[in-house]
Amino acid sequence: MAPPQDAERVQLPETWNPESISFPLRRDLPSIPGAPKGAAWVWGAEDNVGRLNLLTPTRVLAASKAIKSGEVIPVNLPLDVPGQPAFNREPFVHHLKTLIPGLCYDDNYYMNTQSGTQWDGFRHFAHLPSGTFYNNTKGQDIEGPASNLKCSIHHWAERGIAGRGVLLDFCSYAHAKGLKFDPYDTCSIFYQDLLECGRAQGIDIRPKAQGGDIEIGDILFIRSGWVEAYHSKNPAERAHLGLRGHKEIKFGGLAQEESIIDWLHDCYFAAVAGDSPTFEAWPTKAEYHLHEYILSLWGMPLGEMLNLETLARRCRETNQWTFFFTSAPANCPLLEPHEMRIEGRTFIVSGGASGLGQACVEHIVEKGGHVAVLDISQDAGAVLVDKLGSQTRFFLCDVTSTETVTEAVNGAAQWSASTKMPLGGVVAAAGVGGPATILDKHGAPFDLNLVDWVLNVNLRGTIDLVRQSVAQLAKVEPVEPDGERGIVIMVASSAAFDGQKGQVSYAASKGAITAMTLPMTRDLARFGIRVATIAPSLFESAMTSRMSGKVRTSLESAMEFPKRAGQPDEFAAVAVHLIENIMLNGTVIRLDGGMRMPSKM
């Protein structure tokens, strides 16, 4: 990608440094492959905080110089204001819970976080033409079975918001100039209005790089007068305005114009906020909304319905329009109640370099988890880790060797601790087959070495891996609200229920896994660890690839529907669902297309 002509001023995305004192103008933004035009997703693919990256310790320390008197001024409205929120949002509800009459009480709140003073998070408003939220976040990242924590507002809470605030009191400026501006109508505040408002306050609202007073990382506040207008109305009027239908909703705010967009971008504000419910004039008079630029394209936190009345009065009295501002956004990382999250956790998968185990590894990684890949094949493990990247790590492991299992599990636990991605479970997918009838065609008994091999891998190996993994899993901090620590997923087979001729050893090993699922569940319940087993029938794997065409065709004919071998991805999808659904515990899931095998094919 060739740099723009003004290359000295422009930083390419991979070189952006939040400590820089120079950033590109909007017109000079480099294009980002796969991103909408004008996107400034420049802080890395894993970024969740956008322009808050500009609030470096150096800038926060410099911002503290704006503290002159030490006076603290809150800017949040009471939780029940407005009494009737717009956009059909639920009003705040407060219930008092009596624990001990006269001695002890709790408060229960029910609220829509968009009903009053708020931060609009990056998952609130998409870039409408592309259906994309900040940093390529999609709707499926926010809701549904693949939902995750990408760009969740709790990432802001983990760092907080602190920096120099700059207030533009447009309401007072408009009153002084006799300008007509109704906060409950679609009145626009243009860039020229803000320029003149700033001059009246003694502020040059241009970026410092252009000779103005705005510093990189400043937090912008605009008082339009909505809070003042709200309190000037009686309860009936407030309710009527709050209940307006979507097509009738109107609010004053910033104009949808190129000058405003350029200014908001080029000042490199860390965040912007206002006192109105929409910040921008509503409904939009353009083919776009400022929300799309601010939130989706730039990753700039957007505050609405802040109570700027006292702050504006004190700024006028002291003629100081800059101040130190702090905010603690909601620290709410939960996806859905009672859901075990894969993102941010580490899982141990044996037999992870091929077949069903490999499919589980790939699905867990796709969901944002880390995977310790345990396998007997060093080469296959290296290929898989090279393919999937830093979310995986290979550990050589022969499940028949307690020594290598110990080394692998301990290594996985240490890796988990170093990445701060706590263990979330173990998938015991290593397995072998060994067909042999108990008496051969000559009447001779089968070799017990074969029995030992199958039982050692499938049964003893599973137990050894599980016992060592859950010892580590039990040390993990439980996840509320249920206190879950993780899950054990074991692999049985249809042979556990209706094994065929020649499957004595195999059926014994898989039947034992099926039988021990419930007692293991009961053993681990007090630790908040669930146990579930998947019993597949014919699935594509290294084991089934060695079958003769005749045997494979016979097995497929025994399937009720569909009449084909299962795909590893279909197995892995069940494993992922087991991880995420906390009510699946102590169960054996037959994943067999309705197959009930006859005694022989």
UniProtKB/TrEMBL annotation:
Q: Which InterPro entries match?
A: KFase/CYL, KFase_sf, NAD(P)-bd_dom_sf, SDR_fam
- Which Pfam family, giving just one, matches this sequence? Cyclase
Gene Ontology biological-process annotations? L-tryptophan catabolic process to kynurenine
- Please list the GO terms describing molecular function: arylformamidase activity
Name the domain of life this protein comes from: Eukaryota
PANTHER family in the record: CYCLASE, PTHR34861
Q: Which family does the record claim for this protein? A: Belongs to the Cyclase 1 superfamily.
UniProt name for this protein: Short chain dehydrogenase
Please tell me the species this chain comes from. Colletotrichum scovillei
